[in-house]
Amino acid sequence: MTRRLILVSSLTLAGLHAEPQGSIDLGDALQQGADWLKQNLDDRVAAQLPELDRPKLEQYLKQFQAEMGGEYVLDLAEAKSTAHTVLPVLEATPALRPYAIWLRTRLDYFDVADELRLSAPAQQPSAPGRPPTRPPNPTPQAQRMAWTRQLKTRPALTGTPAMAEQLRPIFTSAHVPGELVWLAEVESSFNAQARSPAGAVGLYQLMPITARGEGLQLTPSDERLDPAKNARAAASLLHSLHRQFPDWRLTLAAYNAGQGRVRELLGDDKSRGYDQIARHLPAETQLYVPKVEATVKGRTGMSLAELKTPP
C-alpha cells in the first residue's frame, strides 16, 4: 500500500499542466495516463515505482482531469492528506529524497488551498436533481491575503539569507531584480538537490529543455545541480520572459505555466493584467504567483510592483 501511495503522490503532485480534454471514459483516461507516464515521468522516479492497480489509477486520472487539468484551486485541498502520508516514505528512501525535498517545499500549497476552501461561501442549493453550485474560485486578492498570512511569521531557513546574497549578483547582472533570488525558496527551499517527478531539477527547478535552452549541459553531469549555473539560467529565463510580459506577476505565471499559456490568455488585449487571466491558469500557478509575491515581500520588504530592473 505504501508503494502505491508513492505513485499516487508522484502523479498527483507533479505540477502537471495538461490541457483539459473534456469528458472521457475511464478506459480512455487509463490510456492517457499510460501515455503521460511514458512521455513525462522522470526515469529515475519511475524506476522506483511498481505498477498501480487499475482502479486506483482510474481514480487518480478522474481526479486529475477534474483538478490539475482544470482551474479550480479549492480541489487541491483534497490532496493534502495524501501528501502528508507520502512525505515520510519519500524521505526514508535514499533514492527518492530529492523528490521529498520538492514535495516538502510545496506542502503549504495544500494548506493554503484548504484555508481558502474553509473560508469559501457555502455551496448554494440548486434545482432538484442538479448538484449544488460550488463556491467560485478564490480571487487573486484572496489568494494573496492567504499567502501573506501563511508566510507572515515563517523565518527564512537556516543559511538561506547567506546563499541568497551570494546568488543575488547573478540576477542583477542578468538585469533581473536581485529580490527575485528568493524564488529559490518557493521552488526548492534553496536545496540544489530538489527534483520534481516530472524532471525539474535544482534551486530554480529547471526542466531539461529549459536548461539546454539556457546553455546548461545535462551529461555527463547535470549542471542544474550547480547552484550558480542554475541561478544564472533561471535569471536569464526571467529576463527573457519579462521582456515579453512587462509585469512581474505575468512573468512568474509564464515561468510556472509556460509563456504560451499566458500569451494565449492575454490574446490581443495587451492591457490585461495577471488578475484578469488568473482564474484561467492552472490551479498550481494560481497559488504559485502569490506565494512568490508573499515570499519576496517577507524576505526583502519589496512588493513585485516595487521591484526595479537593474540597468
Quote the average pLDDT: 80
Fraction in helix: 55-70%
Largest sheet: none
The helix/strand order is HHHHHHHHHHHHHHHH
CATH architecture of the largest domain: Orthogonal Bundle
Cα shape:
globular
Structural class: mainly alpha
**Number of helical elements:** 16
Unreliably modeled segments: 1-34, 49-54, 60-66
Keywords:
mainly alpha, 311 residues, Lysozyme, 2 domains
Fold and architecture overview:
The chain is mainly α and 311 residues long. The chain folds into 2 domains: 95 residues, no CATH class; 163 residues, Lysozyme (Orthogonal Bundle), CATH 1.10.530. The protein contains 16 helices and no strands. The radius of gyration is 19 Å and the shape is globular.
Summarize the structure.
The chain is mostly helical. It has helices spanning 2-12, 26-40, 43-46, 54-66, 80-92, 97-105, 107-119, 140-151, 160-173, 183-188, 208-213, 227-244, 248-257, 259-266, 274-277, 283-300.
Topology diagram in text:
Elements: H1 2-12, H2 26-40, H3 43-46, H4 54-66, H5 80-92, H6 97-105, H7 107-119, H8 140-151, H9 160-173, H10 183-188, H11 208-213, H12 227-244, H13 248-257, H14 259-266, H15 274-277, H16 283-300
Helix pairs in contact: 1-5, 2-4, 5-6, 7-8, 8-16, 9-12, 12-13, 13-14, 13-16
